[in-house]
């Protein structure tokens, strides 16, 4: 008895924006199956289509970096130092200001939200305070993602590296959905996005503040769902670096012991759960940043590049190197 069967090969790639479905038939005679050449050709064709599309996406994938963190954590200073470092190593980078309350910059601003809306105007016209006015400005940005933002992004090439210097209001990246919607919009445009979360190293002076910083960072990680690099900023201002280093590579038992010593006995069960969350799931770790050292900036940048696979498909170009001097 001869039974004709149908095989269906489906390549479903929403990120690439299409679905490929191919059918191939084969005949079955008892235990022996005879596959038609159409089946093999279909597989080869599907593989070729998928590889071609994937390669095209890989080549045109652009990189976007979100710099977030509490107010005063050194986000703008970090962006300025990053820009200067990239200028030195001849790496193209563009800084975008997303803070409607910003005033002065130590770097050229490629895009500026204040061209769309400013905090001073909102506070004056609507009578809002600084916090309410900032939320209003960011919601206005969200409403203009398809207009103002897309128009500004069209001025840059696919391989341009854009860094977004974000406001320091913590609720923007902890529970208010504005930045999450902003990130989702970038993802839909096929941008590879990474978040850098800055914490002032002078804040990490004891175990309770360390756990607080971990929870704030974890909240941002969960909210944004992005590759995440946590940075301890202002290491150049820290006098007791040994005390800070204990929190870069913390021992769970030591942390738990310190927490139990500093807090009331009724919190011991909570302390144990918090330490297990930080340790067992390995969700939070910090990279120290000392702006006085080029090696520190270079190391932080390499951590970011690794998290988003930046440069893995880059071609070597003659213009990337200085021409050799003639003897």
UniProtKB/TrEMBL annotation:
One of its GO terms (molecular function) is GTP binding. The keyword Nucleotide-binding applies. Keywords: GTP-binding, Hydrolase, Membrane, Nucleotide-binding, Transmembrane, Transmembrane helix. Coiled coil: none annotated. The chain crosses the membrane at residues 37-57. It holds the Pfam family ATP_bind_1. Binds to RNA polymerase II (RNAPII). Small GTPase required for proper nuclear import of RNA polymerase II and III (RNAPII and RNAPIII). May act at an RNAP assembly step prior to nuclear import. Belongs to the GPN-loop GTPase family. This is GPN-loop GTPase 3. It comes from Macleaya cordata.
């Amino acid at each position: 008895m001869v039974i004709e069967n149908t095989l269906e090969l489906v390549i479903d790639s929403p990120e690439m924006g299409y679905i490929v479905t191919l059918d191939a038939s084969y005949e079955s005679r008892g235990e022996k199956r005879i596959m038609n050449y159409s089946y093999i050709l279909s597989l080869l064709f599907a593989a070729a289509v998928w590889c071609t599309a994937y390669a095209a996406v890989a080549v045109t994938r652009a990189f976007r970096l979100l710099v977030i963190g509490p107010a005063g954590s050194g986000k703008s200073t970090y962006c300025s130092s990053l820009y200067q470092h990239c200028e030195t190593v001849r790496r193209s980078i563009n800084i975008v200001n997303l803070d409607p309350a910003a005033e002065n910059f130590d770097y050229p601003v490629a895009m500026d939200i204040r061209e769309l809306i400013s905090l001073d105007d909102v506070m004056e016209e609507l009578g809002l305070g600084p916090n309410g006015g900032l939320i209003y400005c960011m919601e206005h940005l969200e409403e203009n993602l398809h207009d103002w933002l897309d128009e500004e992004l069209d001025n840059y090439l696919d391989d341009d590296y854009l860094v977004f210097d974000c406001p320091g209001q913590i609720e923007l990246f902890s529970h208010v959905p504005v930045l999450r919607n902003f990130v989702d919009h970038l993802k839909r445009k096929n941008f590879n996005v990474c978040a850098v979360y800055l914490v002032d190293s002078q804040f990490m002076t004891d175990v309770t503040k360390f756990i607080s910083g971990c929870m704030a960072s974890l909240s941002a990680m969960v909210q944004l769902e992005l590759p995440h690099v946590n940075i301890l900023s202002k290491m150049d201002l820290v006098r007791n670096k040994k005390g800070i280093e204990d929190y870069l590579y913390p021992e769970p038992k030591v942390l738990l012991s310190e927490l139990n010593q500093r807090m009331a006995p009724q919190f011991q069960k909570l302390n144990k759960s918090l330490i297990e969350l930080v340790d067992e799931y390995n969700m939070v770790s910090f990279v120290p940043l000392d702006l006085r050292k080029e090696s520190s900036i270079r190391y932080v940048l390499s951590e970011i590049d690794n998290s988003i696979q930046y440069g893995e498909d880059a071609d070597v170009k003659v213009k990337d190197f200085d021409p050799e001097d003639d003897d």
